[in-house]
Amino acid sequence: MLEHILGQGWEVIPAGGATGEAFFAKHQDQKLFLKRNSSPFLAVLSAEGIVPKLVWTKRTENGDVITAQQWLSGRELKPDEMSQDRVAKLLKKIHDSAPLLSMLLRLGKTPFEPEMMLTQIETELDEELLNLPIIDSSLRFIQQEVENIKTDNYVVCHNDINHNNWLLTDDNQLYLIDWDGQMIADPALDIGMLLYLYIDSKKWNEWFIQYGIHADEQLLLRMKWYFVAQSLLFVQWHRTKDRLMEMEQWINRLQAII
Asked: Aminoglycoside phosphotransferase domain spans which residues (predicted)?
């Protein structure tokens, strides 16, 4: 199917990933990253310079839409590089982007309210996990504080700002890739995850200046709330997948802040 769209001489290899819908394609010195049925959101991400350039979009006979992006040589950021100024700047650019927000609204996305996240956690956490004191106290924290983290500021959030989703190309361009989990939410959802995972708390103020925000007590509470909430979801997810070492890591992170 992909060979039919690309024409003769292209070598196509699966790119791995959760969906199995992504491929690398190569022909002489041309290289493309192909995805089947990716969101129209990709075009706006490309136009904003947040992901590698969208080269073309084609529809197949069976109605699938194939997108082709530049396949750029590069590497993912290392954990200790996440404190770099350019990471804060790119995240700020994403959170401030009116075109990204407008496109997600047009695609029917509505803001992800903290109550929705709380309901998801209460529904998904299994009995055995709830018997662990740290899980119980983390859940109580987000239940007690859910009313105190209201904000009117909803932006486009990536929702998985792990260091391996940041692509640094050989010519020193930084991109944030893998947008499958994107949502309209409180920017504290992305900021909390980045700071708690990668930045020493003594350097948080420095990071806030790079990002261009004044951090007050309410922002710090919102960051903590979202980090605890996401951590609980990660604990459950890794447990479901029987990845007990990763589950323990998330439990230890909760121990450190609750």
From this structure: 15-224
Q: Which two tokens stand for residue 71?
A: 């396949």
Q: What are 229-246's pLDDT values in tens digits? A: 999 999 999 999 999 999
Task: Say whether pLDDT at 17 is over 70.
Answer: no
Specify the DSSP element, H or E, that contains 20.
none
Q: For this structure, is 160 an active site residue?
A: yes
More confidently predicted of 65 and 1: 65
The answer to pTM > 0.85 is: yes
Which residues, in sequence order, are CB contacts of 58 under 8 Å at separation 6+?
5, 65, 66, 68
Class of domain 76-257: alpha beta
Q: Which of 80, 136, 152, 160 is catalytic?
A: 160
By three-state DSSP, how is residue 64 classified?
Answer: coil
Specify the CATH number of the domain 2-71: 3.30.200
Q: Which structure tokens are listed for 21?
A: 């819908």
